[in-house]
Specification:
Chain C: Keywords: Membrane, Transmembrane, Transmembrane helix. The complex is a heterotrimer of chains A (309), B (327) and C (266). Chain A is built from eleven helices and 14 strands. With 309 residues, chain A is an alpha/beta fold. Chain A folds into two domains: 218 residues, 3-Layer(aba) Sandwich (Rossmann fold); 64 residues, Alpha-Beta Plaits, CATH 3.30.70.100. Chain A is elongated. The mean pLDDT of chain A is 83. Chain B has one domain. In chain B, 69% of the residues lie in helices and 4% in strands. A two-stranded antiparallel sheet of chain B has the order 1-4. Chain B has a two-stranded antiparallel ribbon with strand order 2-3. In chain B, helix 3 packs antiparallel against helix 4. Chain B starts with a helix and ends in a 5-residue tail after the last helix. Chain C has two domains: 42 residues; 213 residues, 3-Layer(aba) Sandwich (Rossmann fold), CATH 3.40.50. A five-stranded parallel sheet of chain C has the order 2-1-3-4-5, with helices on both faces. In chain C, strand 4, helix 9 and strand 5 form a beta-alpha-beta unit. Classes of the chains: A alpha/beta (309), B mainly alpha (327), C alpha/beta (266). The interface between B and C is large, with 45 and 40 residues.
């Protein structure tokens, strides 16, 4: 039953309808081995529903989820074996100690040794507090224990739902380093959902942008960021320049900043070409400034068109 | 599977539910013991201050007289003979039948507790077994293991059965130890009469026979155990269906109490007997207590309880294995 | 790892108790479904044939006919039976169907059983004590006699008695029915007047009902226990004792033996 391909996670045409509302619509994407994949979208875009489908908590209405070559619906046990996950908050049994929690989940999978438990505890640096009950833990410690739990079964795919929620800046940075380390040193693929663009940009190799249940784009973060740049033109006269810019197909979002400056979005390699056109039409170009775009800009640009009102 | 059951049972123990239930027992059993002691005391006063042995002797002679000299229906004769034997035993073993030792208290306690008290404790144990995993969010961790959902639910159910057994054992041990302080610890092999049957408002004595008290206690606890499991199973289903612990516990407590009340308020409403909570008092059949609702007997009650349990289990399993975990 | 040992202990304890109660449950069901029957008991179960060449005496009613209070367990019925058997040289028989604590309601229900009706058909003489339980329960006990309730249960009693007698005569028009009147067991207590007047009211009722049936005879007992209740009553101060029953038996025998000599009812 094993499908042969290079993807750790491959999702095809995934949809979920609850009641009459279609929450997730025809989602397709792939996660490669060893990469950190971001799943970016505003709250209510269908991120959590998708993640719950990925780990088998919700049955998809349509579509296929293949994890490590196994179909999740048909081969649940094989498929889920190599997945570690934290869905939403790291909710563990508060009345058990950290170690008891880990032992509890270790007993549910064959072949997790006591050594592995110790190893994982070491990895998340919880050694001193591991024999205290979880209710005495701070959120950061719970988060780490949650990750320890997810790592117990030596997963090939780690699924984290909004992992930085509620963490302080230091905690967030710590977590980021840790996840990077997991991906590079242990070769684990990480699937992270987030609504914080900045975070995804810093952490992820590739990203899928989801909005209102649909995937708008899937690309590597660098490509996304490089694909279009903000270019500021200082020209005279401004009105004429705007007219010309608006006629060029690959230039978008022409904004007049003040009497001399215009902000546009356009591929950086086309700057010279546009410059030529300006000069041909007798417009004085006194300055061209390139800005490196943030993911936030791209995201806002993509989701803007779909927003009602 | 063994380790799954171990997990679930371990959680029940660590959740301190067992401790709460034990504490309730620790508070209530002394109260019941004292109440029993009061009852005994007033009975003694009513009989006058005379020696109970003399009274017992007199009763035995009276009954022997009746047996030898009158024409009594044969089944009554058998009954009287058994009664005499029982009283003779009291005399021979120097047991005051009005202050009979802690095994008797154990027996009386479980006979009283089967209908309401034990079911309530079971509800406390079982009501949040599944719903607490929802409430705490840990269900998401449980269901993302490489274990099929039905196995997870089954392990929860088995651990419930184990903890119900442990609950009854604790009840037995505590009632023995605590009441023994006042009543003494003797009386395990005291004979007890059983086999009375009620039919059309008549007491049928043809099946009456004597069993040693330890066996009677074992049987009584066995029956109480069965009805406790039935209550536990129904509560288990509610716990699967309802998310909140408070809601599931409230619903079940109301159902158990309503069942007990209904059988007393409306014994002529015959359809009542098909409700599981009316049939909980299985020890009544052992003790020969009158059954309020007509048409109920042991096989009937067992069938009703078994059917309810089975249906509950099916609903629980179907719902648990199919349902989306949305929150 | 002390904790671990405790855990395992609880686990094993739970499993053991599970087994234990399972055994208990099976034992209980087995015991209730297939009760062990004593051998002696089974042999006695066979019904004794009723030899009724000279007639069958049938006892119906409550504890008085049952003989409660007689240390020998005979009661007036046992005494009458013995005497009767002497007179008829063992050719008569007696069956006592009285049940302790019966009220007229209960007796009426009992009368509707096939087995009882069969006996009524065969009986030549029927002796009944009924009403004591109606009276002293229906009126609310002797501490607080409730006249209204007493009147209510008296009316019910009247109706029941009429029905019982009608039932008997429908089955067996020739039977001679002896109904014992009621006595006042509380004649030496504080509420003597009230209780006595109640009892005589009820006795009037018996009179009234019985008068409509030719073959029904009242045997009064009020006078027997009137003056010296404690002498003739059992320690429970409600049932007659041996001597009390003897007096009742004497009265019944006086009428009954006349009938035997004459060879039965009309």
């Amino acid at each position: 039953m094993k499908h042969q391909d290079d993807f750790v996670l491959s999702v095809e045409g995934l949809s979920k309808t609850i009641g009459k509302r279609e929450i997730v619509h025809d989602i397709t994407f792939q996660v490669k081995a060893g990469e950190i994949f971001g799943f970016l979208g505003p709250n209510g875009a269908g991120k959590t529903t998708t993640i719950r489908m990925l780990v088998g908590l919700i049955r998809p209405t349509k579509g296929k989820i293949i994890i490590d070559g196994y179909d999740l619906q048909q081969d649940f046990l094989q498929a889920i074996r190599h997945v570690g996950c934290i869905v939403e908050n790291p909710e563990l049994y508060p009345y058990l100690t950290g170690r008891e929690n880990l032992e509890h989940f270790a007993r549910m999978v064959k072949g997790i040794s006591q050594e592995r438990i110790d190893e994982v505890i070491e990895l998340v640096e919880l050694k001193e507090r591991i024999d205290d009950t979880v209710k005495t833990y701070s959120l950061g410690m719970r988060q780490r224990l949650g990750i320890a739990q997810a790592l117990l079964g030596k997963p090939k795919l780690l699924i984290l739902d909004e992992p930085t929620n509620g963490l302080d800046p230091a905690g967030i940075r710590e977590l980021r380093t840790f996840i990077r380390q997991l991906a590079t040193q242990e070769g684990i693929s990480v699937f992270i959902s987030s609504h914080i663009l900045h975070e995804v940009q810093l952490l992820c190799d590739r990203v899928a942008i989801i909005h209102q249940g649909k995937i708008l784009q899937t690309n590597s973060v660098t490509q996304l960021v490089d694909q279009e740049r903000k270019v500021e033109w200082i020209i005279h006269p401004v009105e004429k320049g705007v007219q010309i810019l608006k006629q060029i197909s690959y230039v978008s979002q022409v904004e007049i900043i003040d009497q001399a400056r215009i902000l546009t979005h356009m591929p950086p390699e086309k700057i010279a070409e546009v410059n030529h056109q300006m000069i041909d039409k007798n417009i004085d170009v006194t300055g061209i400034k390139q800005y490196k775009q943030t993911l936030e800009d791209i995201f806002l640009k993509m989701t803007e068109g779909n927003q009602v009102g | 599977m063994v380790s799954l059951v171990y997990n679930e049972f371990f959680k029940i123990i660590r959740k301190k539910r067992m401790l709460v239930v034990t504490l309730i027992l620790l508070i209530l059993i002394p109260i019941f013991t004292y109440a029993q002691y009061q009852a005994v005391d007033s009975a003694m006063k009513q009989l006058g201050t005379s020696d109970w042995r003399a009274i017992l002797q007199q009763q035995i002679i009276d009954q022997q007289n009746r047996l030898s000299s009158s024409r009594i229906a044969p089944e009554w004769k058998e009954y009287i003979r058994l009664n005499i034997k029982q009283q003779q035993y009291y005399l021979d073993h120097d047991i005051n039948p009005t202050t009979p030792g802690s095994p008797t208290f154990m027996r009386k306690f479980i006979e009283q507790a089967t209908e309401l008290f034990i079911p309530l404790l079971v509800v406390v144990l079982a009501a949040d077994l599944v719903s607490s995993e929802h409430a705490g969010g840990t269900i998401k961790l449980l269901l993302t293991r490489p274990v099929p959902r039905w196995k997870i639910l089954l392990s929860k159910y088995l651990s419930l059965l184990l903890s119900i057994s442990l609950l009854l054992l604790i009840t037995a041990i505590l009632s023995y130890l605590i009441s023994g302080i006042i009543f003494g610890y003797r009386g395990w092999d005291m004979p007890v009469l059983t086999g009375f049957q009620m039919e059309n408002e008549h007491l049928l004595t043809e099946n009456v026979h004597m069993v040693p008290q330890w066996k009677y206690i074992l049987m009584a606890y066995g029956l109480a155990w069965f009805s406790a499991i039935a209550v536990g199973t129904i509560t288990f289903m509610v716990s699967v269906l309802v998310r909140g612990t408070a809601a599931s516990m409230g619903a079940m407590l109301a159902a158990v109490v309503a069942g007990t009340l209904l059988s007393q308020v409306a014994p002529n409403w015959h359809e009542l007997k098909y409700i599981a909570f009316i049939n909980l008092n299985l020890t009544d059949y052992l003790a020969g207590n009158p059954i309020l609702v007509e048409g109920m007997n042991l096989p009937f009650s067992l069938t009703v309880l078994a059917v309810w349990s089975l249906v509950s289990l099916i609903i629980a399993f179907v719902s648990f294995t199919r349902r989306d975990i949305l929150a | 790892m002390k904790r671990k040992t405790t855990r395992t202990f609880f686990h094993l304890l739970a499993i053991t108790s599970f087994m234990l109660f399972l055994v208990g449950f099976i034992l209980a069901v087995w015991d209730l479904m297939y009760p062990p029957k004593t051998v002696a008991f089974q042999s006695k179960k066979t019904e004794q044939p009723i030899s009724s060449e000279e007639g069958l005496l049938l006892g119906l009613g409550d504890s008085q006919t049952r003989g409660i209070g007689d240390s020998k367990g005979l009661g007036y019925f046992g005494m009458v039976r013995n005497q009767l058997s002497k007179v008829t040289h063992g050719k008569s028989s007696a069956v006592n169907l009285a049940i302790s604590g019966q009220t007229s309601n209960d007796l009426l229900k009992q009368m509707k059983q096939d087995k009882v009706l069969l006996m009524v058909q065969k009986a030549k003489w029927i002796s009944i004590t009924i009403g004591g339980n109606d009276l002293f329960r229906g009126s609310g006990g002797l501490e607080k006699i409730n006249l209204e309730a007493a009147e209510k249960s008296r009316q019910q009693y009247e109706k029941n008695l009429k029905e019982i007698l009608t039932l008997i005569y429908k089955q067996n028009p020739k039977a001679l029915v002896f109904i014992f009147g009621l006595y006042n067991p509380f004649g030496d207590l504080d509420l003597k007047e009230t209780s006595s007047s109640l009892v005589s009211q009820w006795n009037e009722t018996i009179q009234k009902v019985t008068s409509k049936f030719d073959n029904a005879i009242i045997i009064p007992t009020f006078d027997l226990f009137q003056l010296n209740p404690s002498k003739y009553l059992y320690t429970d101060h409600f049932h007659p004792n041996e001597i009390g029953y003897e007096r009742m038996a004497t009265r019944l025998l006086q009428v009954l033996l006349d009938q035997v000599a004459e060879g039965g009812g009309k």
